[in-house]
Amino acid sequence: MSATAHKISIKGVVYGKNTNTPLSGATVKLLHTPKVSTTDNFGVYIFTDLADGPYELQISYLGYEQSRASVEVNQAAPAKVVTHLATGNLQLSEVAVSAAQDKPLNIISAVDLQMRPIQNSQEILRFIPGLVMAQHAGGGKAEQIFLRGFDIDHGTDINLTADGMPVNMVSHAHGQGYSDLHFLIPETIQAVDFGKGPYQANKGNFATAGYADFRTRTALDRNSIKLEAGRFDNYRAVGMFNLLGPAARQNHQNAYVAAEYLFSNGYFDLPQNLDRLNIFGRYQGIINDKTIINASLSAFRSNWGASGQIPERAVSQGLISRFGAIDSSEGGNTARYNATISLEKMLAHEAVLKNQVYLIKYDFNLYSNFTLFLNDPVNGDEIRQRENRTIYGYQGSYEKELTLLGKPLRSDIGIGLRYDDVNGSELSRTRNRAFVAPAQLGNTNEANAFAYWSETWELSPRLSVNAALRFDQFYFKYRNLLPTDTLAAVLKAKRNRLSPKLNISYALSPTVQVYLNTGQGFHSNDTRVSVLPNAREILPKATGTDLGVTLKPTNRLFVNAALWFLDLEQELVYVGDEGIVEPSGKTRRYGLDFSARYQFTDNLFGDADVNLAKPRARDTEAGAYYIPLAPTATSTGGFTYQSPNKFRGSLRYRYVGDRSANEDYSLTADGYFLLDAVAAYTFKKLEFKLSAENLLNQEWKEAQFETESRLRGEAEGLTEINFTPGTPFFIKAGITYNF
């Protein structure tokens, strides 16, 4: 049995009309047949082994106007089609249900981003159905993430990438998988591809609950300057400018630069003095329609103060308001610098070879106080976490379309290497940001080499099977700069993990698709844990299954539902806040995801997502099997109105149910229901925008923890809910000049 090249009948390419850049992920239907194709990074799509005769194509892409083309197929040569799509509104009638598309609406587009109230790129993660976020240490720190019954903390169980570069920080000073997306300028984001579960072969470490892949714009359709101002001394300015002229664009050359500055004091009694600066530049060049070069440089720095979590009793006793602070010196600063270049080349017989290298420089410095005066009644329990990191990375892939037994077969083979060099990873005791005593200090070196092989076989226009295997090898090294009798100066370890995947998709009809996804993934543990002599599960395995259905009963209604199951071998994580290891046993989670999208009119859309989960610890005593803070019921939804040129608006809700704050559910993390809104009006080259959060001005808790803390003067500590309050009613106005 051998795989052979297929006979191409139609070959087309899809470009954006304004930018003349390829549109990756556009849907192309061969009307009056069950065949559907999707464009690659070159904007190319193909249809194979068609009988001679006339055909009609329907080309659509989220945020662009639909287009149709007529072609004539004959055996002499492939029919060639070039399409330029103009920007426009999403039409659900254009979304296809087919075995070739396993996640037709799992793309967050730039159109969505315009109609949601967001303060930074991290908040874009909230668009993922079922994903909840919380900020608990000032606006400059990465938010806490919750998804599918996981308290992901800052990224232990979700794989985050941006233009192919990793966002998750392994063996971070503040916690494993720490993911800070604030270095991205929201206006530069073209789309976010996301998925749930450990089912993608090209997603490795941390891809257990899911993944999100941020993609920046390859080009700007126009220059723009934006100014925003809001409550609580919130000010923001963004500029985006093309660097090349129309002639270069016609030759598929695009380059632009974007800059963002933000200042905010926040809604706390203690001014946050959040100060953030982002600069981003990107270039894309296409050579002879066969080679794509992408390159980008970015610089980010941020400084902030924080009020941190406060005990409920401090508020109830009137010691502080719910927006008050106990330790006024919390906060920190961070910086990240990125450089990446990729070369993607189309080889013979439509094979595509891609190579990417990247370099990341990163600094982090954070002051926190979680237990207040519990351990040190005189100086307090403030800590400093600090590190300097350099990340070197390479990844390459080879994709080719073949046929096996006369059926289309798509091969995807990839390799890569990531190396983290972390210097001065520190945990120290401080007082008012002044050094008191060291707790931990060391240098970390961690390498992850990986390879994967994925085969997708289209057995029929209705049935598609994907089988994949991924291999990861890890090398850990830790140099302890505070040697003790119990811990050697240099410790090393290595482990590997093999992760199989199997995904099956079957279209029962043109309007009903069922799918079964199964596979294994993992999250790595902190190097400081992995190198210990008695370390066991360094790469805890996650095993998951999704059984889902995608329905399109009418042209304007799209529904997706999935029953899911996920077992985690061990949740052994390093708790950077305390510099200790908290091992826990096996866990099991299962639940239901439900999403619906309905288009009432050409301009009015409605959507709703409901996500239910039952997370449990296994092998534990009765009544102590709850997973602290793991969400069990979440829902988002709302209405969006988009007129062709003038007015746009949205009204949306966010709901999180009550959940356990500890293992025996003796403490409850309170849920919330919030309403947000956006209204925008375009007049010639100007856009006026008003966005509001928490329209009902609810008193809600954004972050909550079971914490033993002691206030100054208390004889002993008390365990209760410590929390960070959520934003009160917040309104922001902005004006954008496009030219």
Please tell me about this protein's structure.
The chain is mainly β. It contains four helices and 47 strands. The strands form nine sheets. The protein has a 22-stranded antiparallel beta barrel. The longest helix is centred in the N-terminal third of the chain and has 5 residues.
Q: What is the number of strand segments?
A: 47
Mean pLDDT level: 91
- Category from helices, strands and their pairing: mainly beta
Query: What amount of the residues lies in strands?
Result: over 45%
Distance between the ends: 58 Å
Q: Tell me about the largest β-sheet.
A: 22 strands, antiparallel, barrel
Alpha-carbon Rg, integer: 26 Å
Helix content: under 10%
Number of helices: 4
Task: Flag low-confidence runs.
Answer: none
The gross shape turns out to be globular
Chain-wise SSE layout:
Elements: E1 3-4, E2 8-16, E3 27-30, E4 36-38, E5 44-48, E6 53-60, E7 67-73, E8 79-85, E9 107-109, H1 110-114, E10 132-134, E11 144-147, E12 150-153, E13 158-162, E14 165-166, E15 168-169, E16 178-179, E17 189-196, E18 210-216, E19 224-230, E20 234-242, H2 246-250, E21 253-264, E22 274-287, E23 291-305, E24 310-311, H3 312-316, E25 331-346, E26 352-368, E27 383-404, E28 407-431, E29 434-458, E30 463-480, E31 490-509, E32 512-522, H4 527-530, E33 541-554, E34 557-568, E35 573-575, E36 580-582, E37 587-599, E38 604-617, E39 633-642, E40 647-656, E41 659-660, E42 668-669, E43 672-683, E44 686-693, E45 701-709, E46 718-725, E47 730-738
Parallel strand pairs: 2-8, 13-18
Antiparallel strand pairs: 1-27, 2-5, 3-4, 3-6, 6-7, 9-17, 10-11, 11-12, 13-14, 15-16, 17-18, 19-20, 19-47, 20-21, 21-22, 22-23, 23-25, 24-46, 25-26, 26-27, 27-28, 28-29, 29-30, 30-31, 31-32, 32-33, 33-34, 34-37, 35-36, 37-38, 38-39, 39-40, 40-43, 41-42, 43-44, 44-47, 45-46
